[in-house]
Every structure is written in C-alpha cells, then in structure tokens.
UniProtKB/TrEMBL annotation:
Residues 274-394, 737-852 form the ABC3 transporter permease C-terminal domain. The lineage of its organism: Bacteria, Bacillati, Actinomycetota, Actinomycetes, Kitasatosporales. This is ABC transport system permease protein. Keywords: Cell membrane, Membrane, Transmembrane, Transmembrane helix. The keyword Glycoprotein does not apply.
Amino acid sequence: MTVLKTSMRNFFAHKGRMALSAVAVLLSVAFVCGTLVFTDTMNTTFDKLFQATSSNVTVSAKGSSDTGETTSSTGKPPVMPASVLGEVRGAQGVRKAEGTVFSTSVTVVDHHLDKLSPSSGAPTIVGSWNSNDARTMKITSGTAPKGPGQVMVDADTADKHHIKLGDDIGMINVLGTHHARVSGIATFTVTNPGAAIFYLDTKTAQQNLVGRTGVYTNVNVTAAKGVTDARLKTNVIAALGHGYRVQTAKEVADANQKSVKSFLDVMKYAMLGFAGIAFLVGIFLIINTFSMLVAQRTREIGLMRAIGSSRKQVNRSVLIEALLLGVVGSVLGVGAGVGIAVGLMKLMGNIGMHLSTDDLTVAWTTPTVGLLLGVIVTVLAAYLPARRAGKVSPMAALRDAGAPADAKSGIVRALIGLLLTGAGAWSLYAAATADKAKDGSAPLGLGVVLTLIGFVVIGPLLAGGLVRVLGVIMLRIFGPVGRMAERNALRNPRRTGATGAALMIGLALVACLSVVGSSMVASATDQLDKTVGTDFIIQGDNEDTLITPQAVRAIKDTPGLSRVTEYKLMDASLTTPDGEVSKKRTVKAADPTYAQDVRTKTVAGNLADAYKPESMSVFEGFAKKHGIKVGSTVAVAFRDGRTARLTVRAITSDEAVIDKDSMYVSIATAARYVPADRMPLDRMVFAGAKDGQQAAAYKALKSALHGNPEITVRDQTDYKKELKDQIGQLLNMIYGLLALAIIVAVLGVVNTLALSVVERTREIGLMRAIGLSRRQLRRMIRLESVVIAVFGALLGLGLGMGWGATAQKLLALEGLKVLDIPWPTITGVFIGSAFVGLFAALIPAFRAGRMNVLNAIATD
C-alpha cells in the first residue's frame, strides 16, 4: 500500500512531465482502435447491405461470379433463357420468382458527357427495377421507369452529380449508347457504401444490356412459409439441373463479404502496421521520460532505500507509475480512436463511400486490445529505467552521485549493437546479390530488422561521434552558446541516441520508400523509352474497362494514323509437350503490328512470327519448365471456344518488364477458335501516327473519342506522367500514415528537452548569474534540439537509402534496373528535420528563459 501511495504521489507530482508520454500512448492506441472501429463498421455496413439485398435463393447464369457480378470479357453479362423462370416457379417451396437483368459493364454519363461513376471505386450498376430492390429502396421522387426512354437513379448519385427529374442520361456499353430521361429517384433504406445504380424497365434492360429480350442474368427466388433457404436451393437445383449457379442468401452475402474483406484486410493491417511503428517510436519517448525522472529523483530513491525500501519496492514503484501512465493514455486513446473512426467515415463520405454512424461498431475486443497494448507497451518501456532505479545504492544516492554509470554495460551494449548491425549489413548484402527476387526477399526483411535494432542499440556510440562532427559543422559558428549546446547533447549519449532513434525510424522508412518509388518510376520510364514503339496508348480508366467496338471503329477512322493495333486477353488452358495441363492461363491476342508497338526481347525465334496463322509465343520460364523449344506444339483450349494446336515460333525473355511472362497469339488465330459473339473486347488499343503528324493525330484521337469518357488517349509523355503520379499518390498516402510516428518522435524531442531543462535547473541558474542572457539560453536549447533532430535524420536517411538501394537490387531482377536516389526529397526531409528540431524546442526554450535566477540557483 505504501508503494502504491508513493507511486501515486510521484505520478501526480510529475503529471506535467508525464503528459507528452501520455499523448504518445494516446495517439498510438487511438490509431489502433480507430482502425479496428472503422473496419468493423465497414464490415457491419456491408453485412447489412448484402443481407438486405439478397433473396432467399438466387439463380445466376453459368459464367457469373460467386458475388453475382454481371460482367464478362465480351461486355455483355452472362444470361440464361427466360424459360428458366418458369421452371423455377414450378419448383417445390417457391412462393415467388422474378427474373432480372443487371450489368456492371456500362459507363453512364450526363448530357455534358461527364461520367456518373463513383469516385470511391465502387461499381456502376445498370439493371431492371424489381421487387427485390424495392425492399431496400424507396422511390422518393418521380416514378419507376416505364419504357425505353426512362431511367431511375439512386438518391446518393443524384445528389452527388446534381441530377434532377427529366435530365438526360447516356448509358454506354458494347451495344452502343442508350439515352433516357430521369423518371424517378430512389433512396436506399439501408446504407449504400457508394455504388451508383441506374434502373430501367425489364424489357429495356434486356435490349440495351444484352441485345435481345427473353433472357435474364438472375432469378430472385422467395421461399414459401416454413421452407429454409437450404431446402429451397435443393428444390431449385432439382428442377433446373446443374447448368446454373444457385446460391442461398447467406452464400451470396458471404461471397460478397469475402471480396470486400480482402480489401478491408489490406487496409486494416497496413494501418495497424503504421500504428505499430508509432508504438515503437513511443517506446523511446517513455524510456527517456522514466530514465530522466529516475535520475532527477536519485536522492529521493536513496532516502527510500535508507529507510528500508527494497530494490523490488523501488522497481515496483516506478512500474506502477508506468502502469498509471499506460492506463490514462490508453483510456483516452480508446475514446480518441472512436473519434478517428468517425472522422475516417466522414472522409470516405467525401470520396463517395457513404457510411452511417448508425452502424458504428465498437466490439468489446477493440477497447480491450487498445488498453492491453497501451499498458503493456508502457510498462515494458519503463522496465529498464525501473530496474536501473532499483540498483541505486542508498549512500551513492544520498551523496547525489546519481544513477550508477555502468561502463561495462556500455561496452557490452556497443558490442551487441555492432554485432547486430554487422549481421544486418551481411543480410542486406545477401539480398542484393541474390539470383532471384524471391530468394532475396527474406534476407532483405531480416537485414532491415537487424540494422534497425543495431542502430538503436549502438545509438549512444554513434551519438558521441556524429554530434561532435555536427557540432563542428553547425554549432561552432554560434560561439560559446553553440559549444554549450554541443556539450549538452553529448552529456548523456544514451539519451541523445534514444531521442534521435525515435526520429530515425520514421525517416528511415520515408527514405527507403522514396528510393524504391523513384527507382520504379525511373526504371519504368527507361523501359518505356526502350520498349514501347507506339505513339499512342488507348485504354480505359481502370483495368476492368473494356473498349467497345464502336470506339475501336472511331480510332481506326481517325486521320493521321499509320497503324492501329488491338489487344485482347484470352482465358485458356494449355497442354504442353510434356503432357502437363496449365489451367487458367491468360493468352494475349493482338494484331501482328503489336511486335512494332512493344519491342519484346526474345531468346529464341522472332516475335513477329508468333502472329502468323496457327502460331504463338511463350515466355522463357514457362518454356524451360515444360521443355518447349521453337517448333514445339502446344494445345490451347480457349475458355469460350475450341482447342487449337499452335506452333511455338518465339520464346520471349524473362527480363521483360512490360508484358512480363506473356504468351502471344494473333487475333486472327484466336478468332478461328472462338465464336465472334464470345470474343473478348479490347483491353487496350495502340496507334502509330504518320511521320510528322503526331500532334495532329493526338488531337484527332481525343476528338474522335470525346463521346467515350471512359476511354483515355495517352502519348508516351502522358503515360510516364500518370505512372509517376500514381506512385507519388501511393507514397504520399504512406508518408501521411508515417506522420503519426514522426509526430510521436517530435513529442519525444520536446519531452527530452523539457525534462533536461528541469534536470539542469541549478546549472541554468548559475549560467544566467554569470552573464548568459535569456536569448542566449533559448538559443542554446534550440541548437541542442536541432543537432539531436539532425542526428536522427542522418541515421534515418542513411539507413533508409541503404534499405532502398538493396530493395532496388531485387527489383532489378524483375527488370526494374535503374537506381534513382530522389535527392530533392532526401534534402527536403533533412532540412525539414532541422525545422522539426527548432519547433520541438520552442516550449522548453521559452520555459527555460522564464526561470527566476535566484530560485534556479537555490533548487536542490
């Protein structure tokens, strides 16, 4: 009980000094809890939506996906004859059955030809209005669609794009462009996570999405009273046979949830990873805080020992303080985490994914995880300072000798640090010299971890050397004040090393990712220059967007073009000469001019020959695995057609970056074995301009495709810029998440300086008494902060560039061979670190300057 009282007294006596450590715990716990609450809420939202929109049993056409996606490579949804509806209605246990038609292979535009698709990545769905949708949507304005000239739109899409009754809507798909006027607006009665939905009447949907009436994509089946979904499914299968996909409501919901879960899991674990980094940085802050508090209470600890307190009691007293800190920070962090989750929901709403706070889900595991993490991390971080406090002998403490300086432990620490750093460097070398990227990934990961830990352990040794060098370069110009700042930073190398290491972690990751991202852009740009021989690349806004035949005709009719190359993806199974069957392979069908558009290196044969009749190419790795040579025959069973026996005319190099591991056939060859109505649409189209007409052809192409806003025309400059922008956006998002760790590191610098000022109160009073001005004192503290921040930046940037350069060596094995160090970014981060140091010193320097000289000198 006495130990508890002492701990409570000390905790509240130093509550101001504990505050920044508590904030670090709060931020880290809040990020973890916010991530968990946000992803749980999204899961709840999608669960409710999928359960509400699924009928008891759904019958889908053969070829549709488990999630009910009504799309295909032909641009038309898979369908089944209308006779299926009668057969389903005749099945035992069916109360009601209704045929519907839906497609996600449609681009919807307004009268300005602006796309009405969601910005969140959710699908655009065009389909027939039916009673199943009426269960989850209410017509709040106008009427349901009747006839070919009417369409109904969901309220969220109408609000976002300012759509009103009577507005003209264009729906572009493989069958052309269908125009209709908005007859009604329907509002979801459940949360809509962001899909844009447009409804037609059934006959119009059949004609405009499939091209003929008398077919359906789905049949929604409602069970009679007392009939379970499982029984109903069995009865429907008995009536139809096994030629269709039949799923219960739970199976459809589970399949949809599975596809959503894969996206949510990536986001969840990525965000938790960054929260873990923030926790790691926070550990240094907590260690420094308790180390300095223990040092400042040396005499007090000595008195406690002198009157009978044991080492265990002193140790326990410090750990109880850490426990209190962890509990306070974690409880506040759990509450802040809910606020972060609500903020993320609002942010998602701004990009089109609507999440209602009515579905806010706080599972009991979330606060439990947050509290446990916060408390455990805090107590573990305080263990070393607590153990050091327990070692203080009463006599040494009463003489104010301070905590014992263990030279032996410092030597051991340095040796361990050097050993870990050396082992990490060797692992990075092993990764850089690996023959295969897969073989080098494990050594790379091990090298990153070992060098990081090694630098943390060896931090005090590095601080002693680097700070002296930085002092000569940065501080000596400020005269005596600069030299005092240097000595203050060197006074406790362990503390300086820990403070710098906190900043080092975040900046190391920033530098590593910057090097990798910049190298990827430089390598891809280099490959484009060497490999791509076409002037224009025409493709959809995303990988699922197909190019309609109308758009292809418009491209071919564009003046100023010397050639146009179509490019399709064909699903097939391959039987190789060794008798092995390779299922679910993708064969790329293109016009013969593709060999000019993309110059791919071959190790055998001529790629142009692969586009001859009954010919193909394979890639080097596949050829080696199956003993294929030029002249070998491969049986290619096209998924939607017959089996062809094609002669291998070329083997492409595995060093290719663009279209790596590809197999090619000509479109003419594929067309012999796949019926025209099952032939996939183009994924891309390449076009070459006539000599001297590039600018005019570029402008003409854009004009020709103006009516197809889902398709983008790019020249090589556009393509390179987009590639750079995409990687830049990804890096910016990662930098934003890493900002949490850097904020915690800045708090660490602030706390270290603040406690250091308290620790040196008498010294500061004496310096002021002998003539040091307030301005000089503040400058000294600011310079000390800057040199610590720059020290951490040097370690982080150096370490990160080493990691990035090693990672690039592995990327080189995949064809990305250019190492590009983004010096503007590295320089900007380095300069920014100096400003971080200045910012962190503002409050400690201000407080030091306000000290009363006499009171400071009299401080015990």
